[in-house]
Sequence to fold (224 residues):
Amino acid sequence: MVQYEDIDRTFAALGDPTRRSVLERLGRGSATITELAEPFGISLTGMKKHVRVLEEAGLVSTEKVGRARLCSAGPRRLEDVQIWTQTYRQMLEERLDRFGELLERTNKECAP
Amino acid sequence: MVQYEDIDRTFAALGDPTRRSVLERLGRGSATITELAEPFGISLTGMKKHVRVLEEAGLVSTEKVGRARLCSAGPRRLEDVQIWTQTYRQMLEERLDRFGELLERTNKECAP
Fold:
């Protein structure tokens, strides 16, 4: 169940364009809350909220450096999201393959 | 922006274990709302709500068949989720590679 809750949180955290942009920014290197907030033109309070959601999902780590809070890409690297997505896509493709095979067999059987 | 809204909706729709299970079930074949609701022990109204969220995200298609509503895997196949996730993971890996190279170079330069 813990695993389930984690992936729920991860998907929910990714369902916001600002939070995905924050991750893309942190993928290029660490940044303070102020540095993250600036390009989005949102308040520090607003950015802190987004960072907290990402931190709770394990997607961002933060540490206090002097008076600033430095944010970095967190320990979770979306392995679970990637595995779930790939498994689902594969399941659909295999069904389509089976459907294709069935069509082909039916066509052959019905051929004059 | 439309694309952005779509992926927001997709991620949000996937942030719920019942909705992910519904997709896994539909990946094996179509099912009515009643058939979907039964194994989860939730009400038809509850399942209808989940299906609506998935339908709005393009992940499920529904059609009225007699008095039942038949649900199938929708036109969106999580391509966008897969691409975003892979790009993010790759970015982090490349940064780690560069960090590894830097460490190696530093070690060589500092070697006696």
Remarks:
- Strands of chain B lie at 31-32, 60-65, 68-73.
- Chain B touches chain A at residues 4, 8-12, 14-17, 20, 23-24, 27-29, 73, 77-78, 81-82, 84-86, 88-89, 91-92, 95 (CB under 8 Å).
- Helices of chain B lie at 2-14, 17-27, 33-40, 44-56, 79-110.
